[in-house]
C-alpha cells in the first residue's frame, strides 16, 4: 500500500508547504501530539470505514469499529513496527475488531434471517449487468449474500477483491499465510457464485439460469 | 490487443494465480472497457464485486470520527492524571477512616473495661451513641469528597470537605 503524502496544516486554512508522510505524523503522535494523530484519523478513516462497512454490511456500526480501531492503535502506538505501513497495521486492528463483532452477532443474525429476510430483486438480465454494477448494486447484492461466508472469508474477499489489496497485505492484516488468503478467496467466490445462481439468476448468462 | 490479453487472463484472475502487476492491470481494464466487462461478467458473475464503486464518505462523518477519537484520547489522559494525583489523598483518607474508627472502637472498649459494668442493658448505654461516627470518601469527577456522619443512625447531619486533587501532599 502506497504511503500517503499530504501537506501539513499550519493553522485554519493556511499551509506551510511542508510535506508530511505517515511516519512523520506517527512520530509526532508518539510524542503526544493529538493533532498529528487527528491528521492520521482524517487520512485513513475513509478507507478503513469502506472496508469495514463492506465486511459488516452496516455503515453506522462500521464507524464505531473505525473509532475503536483508532483508539486501540493510539494505545499501542509504542508497539507499532514502522517496517509495516501504518494503514496495514490499522486495517489489521480494524479487521480483527470487525471479525470479532461478526462472530458475536452470528446467532443474532441467524435469528434475524429466519424472521425478517427480504430479498433485493434486481431487474434485468445477465446482459448489461456491467452498467448496473457500476451504479452500486454490487454492494447491495453482497449485503444479501454475505451471510454464507465465514468472517475470515468475508474479510479476505472484501480486502482483496473489493478493495484491491495485494495478497501479502491481506495476509498481514488477517494474520495468516498468503496461501490461506487465496484459499479464503477461492471458497468465498465459490459460495457467492452458488448463491448468485440461486438467488440472483439475473446476473448469470442465459445458458446457466435454472 | 489489450482486450484479447484481457480475455486470456480471466481464468487466472479468478484462480488467484496472476502476478500483482498483471492483476492490477486486469482490474483497471475491467473497469474501463465496457465490452470486456460485459463479457467477463457473463463468464464469471462474481467479478461484479471487483468493480463495485467506492461510496464517498461524508465529510461530516469523518470529522465526527476525528472528534470522537481525539475527545476520548483527551478524556483518558485527564482521567489517568487525576487517578495518579488522587492516590495519595485516597490513601490519606483511608488511613483517616481506619484511625477514626479504630480510635473510637478502642475508646469504647476501654470505657467498658474501666466501668466494670456489663456490656448490655445499663442505663449508661442508652445515653451513649449506638455506634461510632462514620467517614466516607467519594470521588466526584475532579473532586475527592470526604464525609463525616455524626452517628450511624443519623444520616441527616453530615460534614464534608472537598479535596483539591491538584494539591500535592
Q: Outline of this structure?
A:
By secondary structure, chain A is mostly helical.
Number of helices of chain A: 8
| Rg result of chain A | 20 Å
Mean pLDDT of chain B, to the nearest integer, reads: 76
Strand order of the largest sheet of chain B: 1-2-3
| Structural classification of chain B | alpha+beta
What's the helix count of chain B?
Answer: 5
Oligomer designation: heterodimer
Main sheet overview of chain A: 2 strands, antiparallel
Portion in helices of chain A: 55-70%
Q: How many strand segments of chain A?
A: 2
What are the low-pLDDT stretches of chain B, counting only 5+ consecutive residues below 50? 116-123
Counting DSSP E segments of at least 2 residues, the number of strands of chain B comes to 3
Strand content bin of chain A: 5-15%
**From N to C, what is the helix and strand string of chain B?**
HHHHHEEE
> What shape does the CA trace of chain A take?
elongated
Amino acid at each position: 500500500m502506497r504511503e500517503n503524502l499530504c501537506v501539513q496544516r499550519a493553522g485554519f486554512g493556511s499551509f506551510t508547504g511542508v510535506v508530511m508522510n505517515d511516519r512523520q505524523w506517527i512520530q509526532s503522535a508518539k510524542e503526544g501530539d493529538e493533532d498529528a494523530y487527528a491528521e492520521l484519523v482524517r487520512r485513513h478513516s475513509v478507507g478503513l470505514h469502506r472496508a469495514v462497512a463492506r465486511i459488516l454490511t452496516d455503515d453506522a456500526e462500521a464507524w464505531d469499529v473505525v473509532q475503536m480501531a483508532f483508539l486501540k492503535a493510539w494505545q499501542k502506538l509504542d508497539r507499532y513496527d514502522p517496517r509495516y505501513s501504518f494503514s496495514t497495521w490499522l486495517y489489521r486492528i480494524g479487521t480483527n475488531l470487525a471479525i470479532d463483532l461478526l462472530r458475536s452477532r452470528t446467532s443474532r443474525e441467524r435469528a434475524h434471517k429466519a424472521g425478517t429476510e427480504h430479498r433485493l430483486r434486481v431487474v434485468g438480465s445477465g446482459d448489461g449487468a456491467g452498467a448496473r454494477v457500476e451504479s452500486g448494486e454490487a454492494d447491495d447484492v453482497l449485503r444479501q449474500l454475505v451471510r454464507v461466508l465465514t468472517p475470515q472469508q468475508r474479510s479476505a474477499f472484501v480486502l482483496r477483491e473489493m478493495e484491491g489489496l495485494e495478497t501479502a497485505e491481506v495476509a498481514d492484516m488477517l494474520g495468516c499465510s498468503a496461501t490461506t488468503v487465496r484459499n479464503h478467496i477461492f471458497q468465498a467466490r465459490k459460495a457467492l457464485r452458488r448463491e448468485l445462481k440461486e438467488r440472483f439468476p439475473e446476473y448469470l448468462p442465459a445458458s446457466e439460469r435454472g | 490487443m489489450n482486450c484479447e490479453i484481457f480475455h486470456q487472463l480471466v481464468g487466472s484472475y479468478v484462480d488467484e494465480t496472476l502476478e500483482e502487476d498483471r492483476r492490477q492491470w486486469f482490474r483497471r481494464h475491467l473497469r474501463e472497457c465496457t465490452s470486456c466487462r460485459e463479457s467477463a461478467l457473463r463468464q464469471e458473475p462474481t467479478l461484479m464485486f471487483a468493480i463495485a464503486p467506492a461510496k464517498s464518505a461524508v465529510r461530516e462523518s469523518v470529522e465526527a470520527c476525528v472528534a470522537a477519537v481525539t475527545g476520548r484520547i483527551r478524556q483518558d489522559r485527564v482521567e489517568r492524571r487525576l487517578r495518579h494525583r488522587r492516590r495519595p489523598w485516597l490513601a490519606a483518607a483511608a488511613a483517616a477512616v481506619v484511625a477514626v474508627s479504630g480510635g473510637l472502637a478502642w475508646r469504647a472498649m476501654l470505657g467498658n473495661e474501666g466501668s466494670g459494668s456489663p456490656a448490655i442493658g445499663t442505663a449508661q448505654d442508652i445515653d451513649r451513641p449506638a455506634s461510632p461516627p462514620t467517614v466516607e470518601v467519594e470521588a466526584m469527577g475532579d473532586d475527592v469528597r470526604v464525609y463525616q456522619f455524626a452517628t450511624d443512625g443519623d444520616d441527616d447531619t453530615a460534614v464534608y470537605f472537598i479535596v483539591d486533587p491538584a494539591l500535592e501532599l
